Amino acid sequence: MPCHRQDQEGPSYKKIAAKYKEKKLGEKDAIKQMTTGPKVKLEDGTEEDHKNIETRDPKELSNLAQWILSQ
After folding, report:
1. Which of 11, 49, 52, 64 has fewest C-beta within 10 Å?
2. Is the dihedral of CA 40, 47, 14, 37 positive or negative?
3. pLDDT tens for residues 3-30?
4. pTM, whole model, 2 decimals?
5. Whole-angstrom Cα distance, residue 53 to residue 43?
6. How far apart are CA 58 and CA 17, in angstroms?
7. Interhelix angle for 27-36 vs 58-69, to 10°?
């Protein structure tokens, strides 16, 4: 977890979960973000490619997405 932490840095999982709830996004959206590597805007205003998660196992992706969204 070098880029994201539960409470701090790039953005925190709590901030990600709040953003997804606010925009009414869900598990499928989280999985797409984790697996497609779109550009992400960082807190300092710069953009970079989001790194893809290595697993393609649907159960693992679902579990991770649900965990992030539950923060």
Report:
1. 49
2. positive
3. 666 555 568 888 889 999 999 999 999 9
4. 0.77
5. 21
6. 20
7. 110
DSSP assigned state of 50: P
Altogether, the residues listed in the chain come to a count of: 71
d(CA 19, CA 25): 8
Among residues 23, 54, 21, the alpha carbon closest in space to that of 37 is found at 54
pLDDT in tens, 24-59: 999 999 999 999 988 888 778 888 888 889 999 999
Measured distance CA(32)–CA(8) in Å, rounded: 23
**CA dist 20 to 33, 40, 57, 64, 70, Å?**
11, 14, 22, 14, 10
